[in-house]
Design a protein that fits this description.
The protein has about 140 residues and is an alpha/beta fold. Helix content is about 20%, strand content about 30%. The radius of gyration is 16 Å and the shape is globular. The relative contact order is 0.17.
Length: about 140
């Protein structure tokens, strides 16, 4: 029998201060804590996934590793970009719409549910409940 993958269960990032990282991700994305303590934290991502945040003594930057988070629409991407640029003074990692490194160097990209390249999301209850329809209009790159 072939293995069938249903999605990604979790992602893990490394930081030098787990409490500050929880505040950052809670502020920017509204993530809810599942549990935490002793240099580690777990935040809910959507209905079925979570992000684990582990505190380390020494960060080891990477060039290509990253994770992607989904928000509802273009306006939410604009809101996230604005907060990252203005409040946190972060610089975009590329010319993609919303591609940044957090204060600990973890790279993340933010997409929205209207991107037709994400048509694989249609079976997910969250997309169905949100009433998302695909328009056929590709997103535009945003410069800072």
């Amino acid at each position: 029998m072939a293995v069938q993958v249903y999605g990604c269960n979790h992602i893990v990032i490394e930081v030098t201060d787990a409490k500050k990282a929880v505040k950052f991700y809670s502020d920017v994305f509204g993530l809810k804590m599942l549990r935490g303590g002793e240099g580690a934290a777990w935040c809910k991502l959507g209905e079925h996934q979570f992000m684990a945040i582990f505190e380390v003594d020494r960060l080891q930057p990477d060039r290509m590793k990253h994770f992607g988070l989904m928000v509802r629409d273009e306006q939410q991407i604009k809101d996230v970009r604005k907060k990252l640029l203005n409040k946190y003074k972060l610089k975009p990692a590329s010319d993609l719409r919303c591609d940044f490194r957090d204060p600990w160097g973890n790279r993340f990209q933010v997409g929205d549910l209207s991107d037709e390249s994400l048509v694989w999301l249609l079976p997910y209850q969250e997309v169905q409940k949100a009433g998302i329809t695909f328009t056929g209009k590709p997103y535009k790159k945003t410069r800072s």
